[in-house]
Design a protein that fits this description.
Elements lengths: L1 E7 L9 E6 L9 E8 L4 H19 L5 H22 L7 E2 L1 E7 L2 E7 L3 E5 L3 E3 L6 H7 L5 H5 L20 E6 L5 E5 L1 H4 L4 H9 L6 H11 L6 E7 L26 E3 L46 E4 L6 E3 L2
Parallel strand pairs: 9-12
Antiparallel strand pairs: 1-11, 1-13, 2-3, 2-14, 3-4, 3-5, 5-6, 6-9, 7-8, 7-10, 10-11
Length: 327
C-alpha cells in the first residue's frame, strides 16, 4: 500500500482549517484508516473543529472492540459529532463551529467509506468516479432538478453545506462500499481541491506513474488555479505491482458490512467532475436545512501561518511513522 498526503493553506486564507489523518497500519480493529476534515467557523473555531473531531474519531476507533468496519466508523463519527457539539456549546469562542468528515478503510479487498459534508472520495481505475454524495445546498438542488450541474459550478451558494460534524445532536452519515480491483486507487479531498482543479486533470495525475508525489502535485495545481481555499488531499494505492490484490481477498463473517447493518450502500456512480454537486442518485431527496452559510469562509489568525506548510509524504507499509496529521 502506498499513501500520499498533503494539506496546504492555499493562496488566500490566513489559517488552514483542513485536517488529515493517514495510517496504513492498524488503528484499533481497522487494518488502516484515512480521514479528511474541513472545518468551519470564525476565528480559530474551524481549525479546532476539524482537528478535535478527527482526534475524537481516531481515539474512539482505537478503543472499539467491534470488527464491522461500518459500525466502527459510525461509532467514531457519532462520538466526534457529540464532542465537537459539546465544545461548541460550552465555549462562546467556538460557538457555531463544525466540520466535514470523510473516512475510509480498506478491508479484505473492499473500500469502506463514511461521509458527512462536502469533502469527497473519488475512485480512479478504468474510470474516474465520485463515490461520496455532497451534502450541500447546490447538490440537493441538482438532485431535485432545480439546477443543472453546470449551473451549480459557479453558483453563489455553492459553499452552503447541509450536514456537518458538530452542528446537531444527531448526525446523518452516508456509507458506501466498493469492491477494489488491481490498479485502483482512491483520493480523498476537501473542496479546496475539486473547486480549483477539473476532474479530468485530477484523474490524469492519479494515473500518471511518473508523478512521484501525487498529493503534492494536486496541491500544486490547486494553488496554481487560484488557491482560494485550504487544500487537503489523501491518495491511496491499496495494491501495487509488488503487492497485488490477493486472489482470495474477501470479507469474513466479522467484517461483512451488510450482514448485521443496513448502513452500507453501493458506491455512487460518477458525478460531474469538478462541479459543486454530485450525481442524481435516482432517489427522492428531501432538501436538508443548511448548517452554514459559508464553510469556506475560514477564520484568520496570523499565529497559524505555519499551518500552511505541506505535510506531503509517501508511506509504505514497512516504513515507520504510519500516522500523519497536519502540524
Amino acid at each position: 500500500m502506498k499513501v500520499y498526503s498533503a494539506t496546504d493553506i492555499g493562496q488566500i486564507r490566513k489559517m488552514n482549517q483542513d485536517f488529515i489523518f493517514v495510517s496504513s497500519e492498524p488503528v484499533g480493529n481497522l487494518p488502516n484508516l484515512f480521514v479528511v476534515a474541513d472545518g468551519m467557523g470564525g476565528h480559530n473555531a474551524g481549525d479546532y473543529a476539524s482537528r478535535y473531531g478527527v482526534g475524537v474519531l481516531t481515539e474512539t476507533i482505537r478503543e472499539d472492540h467491534n470488527f464491522n468496519p461500518v459500525r466502527i466508523m459510525r461509532a467514531g463519527i457519532e462520538a466526534a459529532n457529540k464532542a465537537v457539539l459539546a465544545k461548541s456549546q460550552s465555549d462562546p469562542e467556538l460557538k457555531g463551529m463544525g466540520s466535514t468528515m470523510v473516512v475510509a478503510t480498506v478491508v479484505g479487498g473492499y473500500l469502506f467509506v463514511a461521509n458527512v459534508g462536502d469533502s469527497r472520495l473519488y475512485l480512479a481505475g478504468e474510470a474516474f468516479r465520485q463515490i461520496t454524495h455532497d451534502h450541500s445546498l447546490i447538490a440537493e438542488m441538482v438532485r431535485l432538478g432545480e439546477l443543472t450541474p453546470e449551473e451549480g459550478m459557479n453558483h453563489p451558494d455553492r459553499n452552503i453545506i447541509t450536514r456537518a460534524i458538530g452542528t446537531t445532536e444527531e448526525v446523518k452519515i452516508d456509507f458506501f462500499d466498493v469492491k477494489l480491483e488491481n490498479g485502483d486507487c482512491f483520493m480523498m479531498c476537501s473542496d479546496g481541491l475539486y473547486n480549483m482543479v477539473e476532474g479530468s486533470v485530477i484523474y490524469k495525475v492519479l494515473c500518471d506513474h511518473e508523478v512521484k508525489d501525487k498529493a503534492e502535485k494536486l496541491v500544486e495545481l490547486a494553488n496554481a488555479g487560484g488557491g482560494l481555499d485550504n487544500i487537503a488531499v489523501v491518495v491511496v494505492e491499496p495494491y501495487t505491482a509488488d503487492e497485488p490484490l490477493p486472489e482470495d481477498a474477501g470479507l469474513n463473517a466479522d467484517t461483512q458490512p451488510a450482514a448485521d447493518t443496513e448502513d452500507a450502500q453501493p458506491a455512487a456512480d460518477a458525478a460531474e467532475e469538478g462541479t459543486a454537486a454530485d450525481h442524481d442518485s435516482g432517489e427522492s431527496v428531501e432538501q436538508e436545512t443548511p448548517v452554514s452559510s459559508d464553510p469556506g469562509n475560514k477564520g484568520e489568525n496570523a499565529d497559524e501561518a505555519a499551518a500552511g506548510e505541506d505535510t506531503a509524504e509517501e508511506t509504505d507499509d514497512d516504513q515507520a511513522g504510519p500516522e500523519t496529521g497536519r502540524n
